[in-house]
């Protein structure tokens, strides 16, 4: 994660496994109230990434 994007208390622990998972989770959390459609897109991307990381 970059310094401009603070770690999420809910998804920050994923950074030790895969930084992309933490980034997508943090973005979904950030967009939750303001832009629900973007939140769902980020969650879908996180799910796909989680599946890819879990299967490798």
What is this structure, in a nutshell?
This protein has helices at residues 19-31, 36-55.
Any overview of this molecule?
- The structure is a single chain.
- The protein is an all-alpha fold.
- The chain has a domain at 18-55.
- It is built from two helices and no strands.
- Helix 1 (19-31) packs antiparallel against helix 2.
- It is flat, with a radius of gyration of 11 Å.
- The chain starts with 18 loop residues before the first helix and ends with a helix.
Kindly list the characteristics that best describe this protein:
56 residues, 0% strand, mainly alpha
Instruction: Name the shape in a single word.
Output: flat
Strand segment count: 0
Q: Mind describing the biggest β-sheet?
A: none
Unreliable residue stretches: none
Which whole number gives the mean pLDDT? 88
SSE-based structural type: mainly alpha
What percentage of amino acids are in beta strands?
A: under 5%
The proportion of residues forming helix, as a percent range, comes to 55-70%
Order of helices and strands: HH
Q: Please tally the helical runs, counting DSSP H or I stretches of 4 or more residues.
A: 2
Lay out the secondary structure.
Elements (H helix, E strand, L loop, with lengths): L18 H13 L4 H20 L1
Helix pairs in contact: 1-2
